[in-house]
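Preliminary data (for renewal application), fe (ii) ion complex.
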Amino acid sequence: MATVKVPATNTQLDDAAEIAAFLKPYGIWHERWDVEGRIGDDATAEEILAAYEPEIERLKVAGGYVTADVINVSPETPNLDAMLARFDKEHTHSEDEVRFTVRGHGVFWVNPENGDPVFAIEVGVGDLINVPRGTKHWFHLCNDRTIRCIRLFQEMAGWTPEYMDNGVHVEHPPVCWGPNFLTAEAASAALGDGPVRL
Ligand SMILES: [Fe+2]
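Predicted structure:
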């Protein structure tokens, strides 16, 4: 279940209806999809896309998405830190960023264009969120350094970021606070190689 947090106002939202109401003005939607028994632990990308085909097809029609794939990130991922460094700096895309999590956790940070304070959405298994095109955002992994997501794209070119380079992301430590809560200090101590980030 997703959690929303606004550090500047010390606000945390755990209720699905409250989260939806909070996100709506920013054009962000969150859905919970039924996951029980849909895929096995060792499901291939093709099996995952097939299992969630009804939901994917619904989104394609609603949002003009033309293709879907599955991204798989784990501590064993080659060049993981280099991959994470592409995601953890404030950026935008020319298309929506749509992610449905089937394994692991992650945090989407959003820097609203209207001057509202930065907020974060922690997602886990069963959470679908949409970060609209042009929205300034960045992404961190949680301490399990694991996330497997279905991604939908409106352009066949796929994931193309445009970085802001104004340093806002540096002001927000890459920590999770939901079921996977871990402080930055604890993460550093546990890993011995700096905080956890994606
Ligand atoms: Fe992004």
